[in-house]
Amino acid sequence: MSEKNILSYEKKTVYEKAGKEIVEKAYEYAKDYVKFLDASKTEREAIREGVRMAEAAGYRPYSFGMPLKAGDKLYYNNRGKGLFMFRIGTEAINNGIRITAAHIDSPRLDLKQVPVYEDNGMCFLKTHYYGGIRKYQWLATPLALHGVVVKQNGEVVDVVIGENDTDPVMYITDLLPHLAAAENEKTVGRAFSAEKLNILVGSRPMEGEEKDKVKMGVLNYLFETYGITEEDFLSAELSIVPAAKARDVGLDRSMIGGYGHDDRCCAYPSITAMIDADEQVHTTMCILVDKEETGSDGVSGMQCHLILDLLSEISKALGGNDATVRANSKCLSSDVTAIFDPAFADVFEYRNAALLGCGVGMCKFTGSRGKGGTSDASAELVGWVRRCLNEAGVVWQTCELGRVDVGGGGTVAKFLANHNIDTIDLGVGVLSMHAPYELISKVDLYEAYRAFEAFYHFE
Ligand code: MN
Ligand code: MN
């Protein structure tokens, strides 16, 4: 190696640095991830999958006040929308907990509480978008309906329409180019209105009805199939998500296209690393939370007091002090970052952007403008993680979302850091982030898995 190579830092791909064996493992790992992605299009479905995986690995339900001992593998299911898996280590709990935190909600279109209406012989469902979307991406593409309807008697009806090949799909109409002259003059931000994101669900009039014949036909179908009435929508959480399934992308099959990589491409490696690492020494915790895309508020978001309650209860049960436990804990906020896209090169700063296939991405800070709204991890923590990843041979890169002052974004990192837990963002890079069909690299996904496993074990 020349002197220059020792002195200078150069980003390399997983293919160059890790070698063929790791690349082949990454391709294998991706197969199960794709299944997880297809089974987890909403936060509820992702938690159901997470619980299934945890139970298969010997984790059992935790309730507050339970006695704990080394080797215990437990999970706390928060209202079916959040999951906290943890394993008690042999060392003193006051040494802290190794935590990973990913979110399992993704941008989508939620149905409004009074969604059904008829207009000119067509029946539609009104939506209210959830998270940051580019509205035009949801037009003229097959969509599916997922969620729950809670009846007045408390019965919960699960709904999934549009996933089986024989199912009908949902659809939002778009304007034909022949008549789009005026619309083409508008900016993208003004051309597409949220109140036009209405789902077309019917056009066949119901015989014997006087008015709203098409709507009555749709309501009749819902009653006969699910036993639900129009009033039941008031207490429902129904979401429109893309109907497409995750697939290999590229002639070399090096990438995966799918809905909800953000942030399931970090959630899945967190769960599998947690299960596979089976760490003996440190107490470890894998957190999957909801509501990140809308600010992490509420009972299922990362800002909920639940994390403090859990850490306090775990500390108490093991004879520790929760303030000490938090001060000595470390957390990887496992969320996605943006991959440099040559088609939109002007919004990225190449030297500090995450590059496709160059491994898991570490963001020391997120936020926007002058580092507004970020916890900004300390150089000491970066140094520690750097040592951890390098000693394990994980291929990783540092990155920031885009050019300074172009935009920005946040993660759950600051909410954990605000609790006096050293936290840094580490996750997979995504192309077309927040689009109905996002793209990631298989080797980046696998390096995230290897990174989380190393983190659970290290020192
Ligand atoms: Mn995210
Ligand atoms: Mn996001």
Task: Describe this entry's structure for a reader.
The protein is built from 12 helices and 22 strands. The protein is α/β, with parallel strands linked by helices. The strands form 5 sheets. It has a 9-stranded mixed sheet with strand order 1-2-3-13-4-14-20-16-18. The protein has a 6-stranded antiparallel sheet with strand order 8-7-10-5-6-9. Strands 11-12-22 form a 3-stranded antiparallel sheet. The longest helix is centred in the N-terminal third of the chain and has 20 residues, at 20-39. 28% of the residues lie in helices and 24% in strands. Helix 4 runs parallel beside helix 7. The protein has 2 domains: 3-106 and 259-457, Aminopeptidase, CATH 3.40.630.10; 108-242, Roll (Aminopeptidase i, Domain 2). The model has no long low-confidence stretch (mean pLDDT 97). One manganese (II) ion is lined by residues 103, 262-263, 292, 335-336.
Mean pLDDT: 97
CATH class of the largest domain: Alpha Beta
Named CATH topology of the largest domain: Aminopeptidase
CATH architecture assignment of the largest domain: 3-Layer(aba) Sandwich
Quote the beta fraction.
15-25%
Taking the sheet with the most strands, its summary is:
9 strands, mixed
CATH homologous superfamily caption of the largest domain:
Zn peptidases
